[in-house]
Automatic annotation (TrEMBL), chain A:
A GO term from the CC aspect: perinuclear region of cytoplasm
Keyword Nucleus in annotation: yes
Gene: trmt112
InterPro entries per the UniProt record, alphabetical: Trm112 (IPR039127), Trm112-like (IPR005651)
Top-level taxonomy: Eukaryota, Metazoa, Chordata, Craniata, Vertebrata
Name the UniProt record assigns to this protein: Multifunctional methyltransferase subunit TRM112-like protein
GO biological process: rRNA (guanine-N7)-methylation; tRNA methylation
Keywords from the UniProt entry: Cytoplasm, Nucleus
TrEMBL record, chain B:
Domain Methyltransferase small: 42-144
SUPFAM superfamilies from the UniProt entry: S-adenosyl-L-methionine-dependent methyltransferases (SSF53335)
Pfam families: MTS (PF05175)
The species this protein was found in: Chanos chanos
Top-level taxon: Eukaryota
Any one GO molecular-function label of the UniProt entry: rRNA (adenine-N6-)-methyltransferase activity
Record family assignment: Belongs to the methyltransferase superfamily. PrmA family.
Protein's name in the database: Methyltransferase-like protein 5
Length: 118, 208
C-alpha cells in the first residue's frame, strides 16, 4: 500500500462519522525506486490531505506546505518518495474513531467489513 | 504505443485460475482491454499522469494496461483474495511501480469514501446476472462519485436506455464510444455452448 493510496482511504465502519485518517501500524515497509515525475507530484499536492500525509510520513515532511513548492525540486522529490516509493507491506490500518483494525497483508489493505461493523 | 503492441503486452497478463460464478468473474480479453485503454489514452488523454481507479479489477488487466500507458498511479479495487493474489503476481511480473491495490466491497463503500479522489475510473463491472441485479448501477454510482474527469465502463447494450435515464437523473453526460461484442468462452462447468456473444457498450460518463 502506497501512502498516496493511504491518503485516500477512509474507514466506513457503521456509525463512524470521521473514519479518517486511518492510523498506520506497519510491521514491514519497503522503499522502491519509482520514476520521478515532478509535474505529477506538483499536481497531486493540492488534492492531498496534507496533515494526514505528514502523519504517515513520520517526520520526513514539513507540517505545512512550503511556498512555491512547484519549483522546489528537492521538496518535490521528498514528496514523491513519500507518496509513491514507500510501501507498507505488512501491518494494519486503524480506524481513528472505532479502533477497528484493517489488516495489510502482502501490500494489500483489506477494507472488508464484517456483519457487525457494516 | 500501437494498439497491437498494447494488446500483445496484455496477453501476458495472468487470468483467474478458478473463477467464482457468483462474483461474475471472467477476464476482460486483451483485445477489448487494449481497445478500451487505447481510446481512453489517445482520444481523451485520461490515463497518462493521471490518478486512475479500476473498480472490480479482478486479476488486473485494465490496471496493468493503464500503468503501461503511464498513469501517474492506478489503484485496483476488488473483493476477492484469490483474484488479488494474481493481481499482485501480475504487477510483479510486469515490474510496474505505478500500481496499487485495495481489497474492499465496492457496493458497500459509502458515497463519501473516495469522493473525487481520482481523475479517471476505468472498469468492467459485473453485469448483475447472478442474483445480484442492479450491481452494475451500484458500481457506476460509486465510480461517478470517485472520478473528477470521467468514468469509462462496459455495460450490456440491452441496458442502454435504462442507464441513459439514470445518467440524466444523476446529471451526468453519457457517451457510447463503441459497441463491442463480448465473446465469452465457456468458462464455467454449467455453460452448454462453446462460447456466447454478448453485445456490450463501451461508455464514457462525465460530469455536465
Amino acid at each position: 500500500m502506497k501512502l498516496l493510496t493511504h491518503n485516500i482511504l477512509t474507514s466506513h465502519v457503521k456509525g463512524v462519522t470521521k473514519g479518517y485518517p486511518l492510523l498506520i501500524k506497519a510491521t514491514e515497509v519497503r522503499v522502491n525506486e519509482v520514476e520521478f515525475n515532478p509535474q505529477f507530484v506538483s499536481r497531486m499536492i493540492p488534492k492531498l490531505e496534507w496533515s494526514a500525509l505528514v502523519q504517515a510520513a513520520e517526520g520526513d515532511l514539513p507540517s505545512s506546505l512550503i511556498q512555491d513548492y512547484e519549483n522546489n525540486e528537492e521538496f518535490l522529490r521528498k514528496v514523491h518518495r513519500v507518496l509513491l516509493e514507500v510501501e507498507v507491506i505488512e501491518g494494519c490500518l486503524q480506524c481513528p474513531e472505532s479502533g477497528r483494525e484493517f489488516p495489510i497483508s502482502r501490500g494489500v489493505p483489506n477494507m472488508l467489513l464484517n456483519e457487525d461493523d457494516s | 504505443m500501437k494498439l497491437k503492441d498494447l494488446e500483445s503486452c496484455l496477453q501476458q497478463v495472468d487470468v483467474f485460475e478458478d473463477p467464482k460464478v457468483l462474483l461474475e468473474q471472467y477476464p476482460t480479453s486483451p483485445h477489448i482491454a487494449a481497445c478500451m485503454l487505447y481510446t481512453i489514452h489517445n482520444t481523451f488523454d485520461d490515463i497518462k499522469d493521471k490518478v486512475v481507479a479500476d473498480l472490480g479489477c479482478g486479476c488486473g488487466v485494465l490496471s496493468i494496461g493503464a500503468a503501461v500507458l503511464d498513469a501517474g498511479l492506478c489503484v485496483g479495487f476488488d473483493i476477492d483474495d484469490d483474484a488479488l493474489e494474481i493481481f499482485q503476481r501480475n504487477k510483479e511480473e510486469f515490474e510496474l511501480t505505478n500500481i496499487d491495490v485495495v481489497q474492499c466491497d465496492v457496493c458497500s463503500l459509502r458515497e463519501s469514501a473516495f469522493a473525487k479522489k481520482f481523475d479517471t475510473v476505468i472498469m468492467n463491472p459485473p453485469f448483475g446476472t447472478k442474483r445480484n441485479q442492479g450491481i452494475d448501477m451500484e458500481f457506476l454510482k460509486t465510480a461517478l462519485s470517485m472520478a473528477t474527469t470521467a468514468v469509462y465502463s462496459l455495460h450490456k447494450t440491452s441496458t442502454r436506455e435504462h442507464i441513459q435515464k439514470k445518467a440524466n437523473d444523476w446529471k451526468v453526460k453519457m457517451e457510447v464510444i463503441a459497441e463491442l461484442r463480448y465473446d465469452l468462452p465457456a468458462s464455467y462447468k454449467f455453460h452448454k455452448k462453446k462460447s456466447v456473444d454478448i453485445q456490450v457498450d463501451f461508455i464514457r460518463f462525465s460530469p455536465t
